[in-house]
Design brief:
The complex is a heterodimer. Chain A is α+β, with helices and mostly antiparallel strands. Helix content of chain A is 29%, strand content 24%. In chain A, the strands form two sheets. A six-stranded mixed sheet of chain A has the order 2-1-6-3-4-5, sandwiched between helices. In chain A, strands 8-7-12-9-10-11 form a six-stranded mixed sheet. The longest helix of chain A has 29 residues, at 263-291. Chain A is globular and about 55 Å long. Chain B is an alpha+beta fold. Chain B has a single domain, classed as Alpha-Beta Plaits (2-Layer Sandwich), CATH 3.30.70. Helix content of chain B is 20%, strand content 29%. Chain B has two helices and five strands. In chain B, strands 1-5 form a two-stranded antiparallel ribbon. In chain B, strands 3-4 form a two-stranded antiparallel sheet. In chain B, helix 1 runs antiparallel to helix 2. Chain B is globular and about 40 Å long. The chains are: A alpha+beta, B alpha+beta. At the A-B interface, strand 13 and helix 4 of A face helix 1, strand 2 and strand 3 of B. Strand 13 (177-178) of chain A pairs antiparallel with strand 2 (31-32) of chain B, so a sheet runs across the interface.
């Protein structure tokens, strides 16, 4: 059974080549994605984190098929999204977020299998790492930071940020599986979401698809950078906004997998996240003043 | 006695969505990739679909039907040929 009472973050200290999994009950109110990432960045601002986060529906429901990345670069806070398999592999590590902190002195590749991290020389063949069938490979390609050799994050400078930390790529393998308490309720809600395929704002196609999305659409390759707060906290596809932008659907989906969120909690999300981002900008201003 | 057996006659149509992987897990009472009798691996030409024989202990019609590209078929095979 997945622990729904905590947000689990794997802090990766690139300088010391060390890592620690920490559980944060107080982050549950931020749900996931940009909500959780903005709080991690705020609380660890001096460590210059680059975060990758998912939301509670990833791995459980179709169209919840993205991974969120967030970072501060050039005095600006960025959140950007990618498709592919990274979200479902991260889900089955048992983690909700990764935080790459500080910088490595030498170029490295990072391999994460569940809660364990290996720091490997940069000349390691990244395609040989991880658990086949249960992994997602994240590498620097000509269009930017890329998952599974195909899906690209919406912001190109994310690649530059990781390269500046001497991270030449990383692999995430998730080998866990979960039970749900009420399989009947979950299965019914799963069918309900799947029946809404016609509400997706993209056409079906024959392109490589994100894990747990049947669309195969032409838009999946390049991730988005703007959009609906709730969708980005759930880290579902922006083209599922008609489905996961509906609080009733989201509430029913979360409830079916054992989350105790109330409608008020979800309604409060935009202001909670906006407050985090405002405080991040205050820290950016403060750090600029300190440098003068 | 015939048994329903899942086949992949059109694996070239696979778009790697893994809907079948998750469906098989769900039918086995779990959420995940670990333990699913279906694996989708990236190949040079697209995707390879790997079936563990124990997939046929599940409701294979449901698995076949969830594939958006019709990669699967279900065949009736007599127990004697299994």
């Amino acid at each position: 059974m997945k622990d729904n009472t905590n947000i689990s973050v794997l802090h990766i200290d690139l300088d010391k080549k060390d890592f620690a999994k920490k559980s944060y009950p107080d982050l549950v109110k931020y749900v996931g994605g940009i909500g959780v990432s903005s709080k991690i960045i705020l609380d660890n601002f001096d460590l210059d984190p680059v975060t990758f986060a998912i939301g509670p529906l990833n791995g459980y429901f179709p169209f919840a098929s993205k991974t969120s990345a967030a970072f501060v670069d050039g005095g600006k806070f960025y959140d950007t999204y990618v498709g592919g398999r990274l979200h479902s592999r991260l889900r089955f590590t048992g983690l909700d977020a990764l935080s790459f902190e500080k910088a490595s002195a030498n170029p490295i590749i990072v391999s994460i299998v569940d809660n364990e991290v290996s720091f490997l020389p940069a000349d390691t063949d990244i395609t040989t790492l991880g658990v086949f069938g249960k992994r997602s490979v994240v590498s620097h390609e000509k269009d930017g930071l890329t998952t599974d050799q195909h899906f690209v994050f919406g912001e190109r400078n994310l690649s530059d940020m990781l390269l500046a930390k001497n991270v030449k790529g990383f692999v995430v393998s998730g080998t866990q599986s979960y039970k749900v308490d009420r399989t009947d309720k979950y299965s019914k809600q799963y069918e309900e979401i799947l029946s809404k395929t016609s509400e997706m704002l993209v056409e079906t196609g024959d392109f490589p698809s994100c894990s747990h999305c049947p669309m195969g659409c032409s838009k999946a390759r390049v991730g988005e950078s703007d959009g609906n707060f709730l969708v980005h906290c759930l880290v579902s596809c922006i083209y599922s906004e008609k489905i996961f932008g509906d609080l009733g659907v989201v509430f029913a989906s979360l409830s079916s997998i054992g989350y105790d969120y109330r409608h008020e909690d979800l309604e409060a999300l935009p202001s909670l996240v906006a407050e985090n981002i405002k405080k991040i900008y205050e820290k950016i201003s403060h750090s600029k003043l300190e440098r003068k | 006695m015939a048994k329903k057996v899942l086949k992949v006659p059109h694996k070239e149509k696979c778009i790697g969505c893994e809907m079948c992987v998750f469906a098989a897990s769900r039918l086995a009472g779990a959420v995940g990739i670990e333990g699913s009798p279906i694996k989708i691996l990236k190949s040079k030409k697209g995707f390879d679909v790997h079936l563990d024989p124990n997939v046929n202990d599940l409701d294979v019609e449901k698995i076949a039907n969830i594939c958006p590209k019709g990669c699967f078929s279900v065949e009736d095979v007599s127990d004697e040929t299994l």
